Amino acid sequence: MTHRPLEEPLRPVRPHPVEQAAVAWNRSPDPAEVDPAVLGALLHRHGWRRRGGAAGRYGRWTPPGPGGGGTSLLVPESRAFPDSEDLLGEALLALSRSGTPSAREVLVSLAVPSDEIRWWRDVPTGPAGATPWTVEEQLRSAARQMLLAGSLATRARAGYYGARYRRTAAAFLENILVGSASGGRRLTAFVPVGTGRPLAVRLHQALYAAREAIDYQRATGGMDAFDGAVEAGVSRELTEALIVLVRGTEGARIGVEWAPAAGVPEGCAAPAEAVEFSPGDLPVLREAGARYLREEPSVPVRITGAVVRMRRSGPRGDGSVRLRVIAGAEIPHVRLTLDEESYRIAGHAHLVGLPVRVHGRLESRGGFRRLTGASGVVPVQVDEAERDRLMKSLQENLDFFEEACGGD
Predict the structure, then answer these.
(1) Which domain of life is it from (predicted)?
(2) Rounded to whole angstroms, how far apart are CA atoms 183 and 140?
(3) Neighbours of 288 (CB within 10 A)
(4) Would residue 11 count as lying in a domain?
(5) 384 burial level (CB within 10 Å; 0-12, 13-18, 19+)
(6) Are 281 and 246 in contact (CB under 8 A)?
């Protein structure tokens, strides 16, 4: 946990991920910017087959599946071929007009170099291969929870995050594009290399660590491997995502394909094999999640926050307070109980639009949303812009506030 004094200037605001990605996601790839080798690698990854072509000049590619023989792309092997840009333009146009799902995925990866995270689920099927509506919802929910767990692990290492870092981690996911779920059995997320590679790398490493910890537990009965797996990014949030993914299936796999344009990140395998989980892993995952929840320690913090709610049973005595956190912990709100004097100080600070600073310990129970052992409650002076935002009325109480709080 870090604390930035309110007197310091605010950090530059990072551009919203949607603003960063909107132009790239929504435009077609420019033939002048497409590397023929990258296009060929993506076509191969997505099941297209090379069927001849002039050796050393171009290759002829056909889409996967039956009926693909009627469509083909001519892709130059390099830009040394005189008509390479024309061929690339024709290939990209054909991909944009193709009804093959893989054609869209190739175009997305060309528009923004992306690592691809894939989920597969072996689910029972109904008549004519149909699946219940809820099956696709479960796949999407599991995928989002897993991406969020990976994003949290790039912020800090913890067995249980609760409300910590969740807001910034969730905002990070807005820059990820997700394809359509194929009957609740397959889903792909495109994670831009420029902003999201740490997430893809961390999730890749965490999944392998989770698999190894499960195998160790099933072989020895010990849960010790899950302690070390935290450093690789395994957490209660990840185990819960895996439970949602695997539950109700005959098995599930998760794989990461690295963007050809960016290469393989350091310390990662190429190609990276998909990690498999089965229903037999569910009891271990549940036990690991409960262990992470039970053993994550409380955290000492010094929080600055604006009072947004106050309540006590009578005119005197202890009272409960809710703060909107401004600095000191990456959580949106926190609840705490204050003694009578501290409660009075918090109340007067609220009246004049000033935040308060308080010391205590964030408790893991309840998701790090409660501060215990609160002490040292003092109002905090802020600059005019912040004060105007916090303070909307009751300026006339300032003299009384200063007298009651001793000018702190």
Answers:
(1) Bacteria
(2) 11
(3) 28
(4) no
(5) exposed
(6) yes
Q: Quote the CA–CA distance of 185 and 189 in Å, as a whole number.
A: 14
pLDDT in the model for residue 111? 85
SS3 115: strand
- 262-271, 315-324, 377-386: least confidently modelled range: 377-386
The answer to whether 61 and 46 have CB atoms below 8 angstroms apart is no
The total of structural domains in the chain comes to 3
The structure tokens listed for 75 are 């892709």
> 66-70, 126-130, 279-283: lowest mean pLDDT where?
66-70
How many whole angstroms separate alpha carbon 163 and alpha carbon 364? 9
By residue range, what is the domain housing residue 363?
299-405
Residue 191 pLDDT class (50, 70, 90 cuts):
very high
**Residues 6 or more apart in contact with residue 336 via CB below 8 angstroms:** 320, 321, 323, 358, 360, 370, 371, 372, 374
* CA–CA dist 170, 81 (Å, integer): 45
Q: And the tokens for 30?
A: 């420019």
In this prediction, residues 272-291 reach a mean pLDDT of: 95
- Gap between the Cα atoms of 161 and 8, Å rounded: 28
Edge-first strand listing for the sheet containing 49-50: 49-50, 58-62, 73-76
- Could you tell me if 284 and 211 are in contact, meaning their C-beta atoms sit under 8 angstroms apart? no
Q: Which of 244, 267, 296 is the last residue of a domain?
A: 296
108 contacts 114 by C-beta, under 8 angstroms = yes
The CA distance from 366 to 371, in Å, is 10
Tell me: do 318 and 377 sit in the same domain: yes
**41 contacts: CB under 8 Å, gap ≥ 6:** 260
Judge if 129 and 245 occupy the same domain: yes
Q: Which tokens go with 91? A: 């290939």
Residue 60 falls within a domain, yes or no? yes
Q: Is the CB of residue 345 less than 8 Å from the CB of residue 356?
A: yes
State the Rg of the chain over Cα: 27
CA atoms within 13 A on the CB side of 176: 27
Reported as a single tens digit per residue, the pLDDT across 104-144 is 888 888 888 899 999 999 987 766 666 777 888 899 999 99
